[in-house]
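Researcher: Next entry in the queue.
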Amino acid sequence: PCSPIHLCTLEPHTDILAVRINGVPVDPCDVIDASAGGTLEIDFEAHDPDGHLSYYQLTAHYGENQVRYLLNLPSATVTALTASQIGRTYSQALAQGAVAPIWTGGRYRLTITNLQQAFPHTCAYQLRLHARKRTIVSCNYSEPHWNTSEYAFTVTV
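Model: Structure for this entry, 157 residues:
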């Protein structure tokens, strides 16, 4: 839903579509026992219908000012569900076959095979998906068009 966190815009659109731990769906506010380890899967959408996507990032925030950059973890892989390029950034998408200046993004699946890399401590975790467009507005080069989606649950390890 639209909120001060997730803007009512499709430029770009972000959404955390599904979260699974060891194949079991995780709903917002769930408490998950991850003491046995396993696999984390996150299906998400980072899409710009105009083809001006700059980048997307997916992080897990926890504790006091702590963050895990999920896309950078050693056991993390991203596969495209509806996208032509996996990207993460516009320059990476170009290297994967996107034709400049277009990169729309799409739907993706992040798989992390070592659950402890994503969730190192027993804590409440907030997944944050953030995406930005490559646009210039009134000579502002700081990519002012963005969107964020969040999804929170607790993990015990």
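Model: The longest helix spans residues 90-95.
Researcher: Noted, moving on.
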